[in-house]
Amino acid sequence: SNDTSNGNGKQCGNLIIVVTHVTPYIENARNQFEKNVGVQQFVYEQRLESKIAQSVAEQYKKRVILTASHSFPYFLKRIPVVSKKQVILNPIDVAIDEMQERVHQLEHVIMNQDVKHLQLVLQGSVHATVNCGPIAYANAFLKTKPNTDDDDIGEEDFDESQKHLKFLFEQFLDLCESALKLNERLIQANQTEYHNNLKLNFEKLKSELDFLNHRSSYIPIFDAISGPTFAPFSC
């Protein structure tokens, strides 16, 4: 995309053209057809680097939503952008957005039961890294601390964003466990050691997130063709 307008129609000097990847922006798509046909809005995101963030608690993100003059697919390969909307996500919204994406990825690979993609997503999900990813988000926004008045800042003191983030963590941990159950059923004998490493990493992840007081809530669902599998319980 490029922005070359200077508002007065005169020569604007050097032009800077920025090429970036965009993805379809569809809020309520019900299937793959709706995700790829009749798409008129697209989105890309950028980390805001004007101030060096020392932790995820200080990291902001800009989301840019572009609207084209016509919907894709179209008989022209290039369609002009007619409007642009910018949304600034504050640090906890960035965490919510990232965890929501992780939940969607796990749901997708569990539903498709594709071993290769399942293992890729699982490995990225259960690998415990303290300074980034889920553990960093939980430590920054959900870890309660006692204050000087001998009162504990508990979940009852969470605001709506914190409650939403904690709910996503509960989904995330349940889905990781469900994905591990599915992987155990689908793998070949020569992948047993790899699977055991995934389980070990998941236990480390749960240990790092122990302060969330999460209780597993998956229930068995019977698949008449491939046998029993597990999925998170949802009300």
UniProtKB/TrEMBL annotation:
UniProt-listed InterPro entries: DOCK, DOCK_C_lobe_C, DOCKER_dom, DOCKER_Lobe_B, DOCKER_Lobe_C
Listed Pfam families? DHR-2_Lobe_B, DHR-2_Lobe_C
Q: Which residues form the DOCKER domain?
A: 1-218
| PROSITE patterns per record | DOCKER
**GO molecular-function terms, A-Z:** guanyl-nucleotide exchange factor activity
Question: Which one GO biological process term can you cite for this protein?
Answer: small GTPase-mediated signal transduction
Q: Which family does it belong to?
A: Belongs to the DOCK family.
Its name, as the record gives it, is: DOCKER domain-containing protein
Organismal lineage: Eukaryota, Metazoa, Ecdysozoa, Arthropoda, Chelicerata
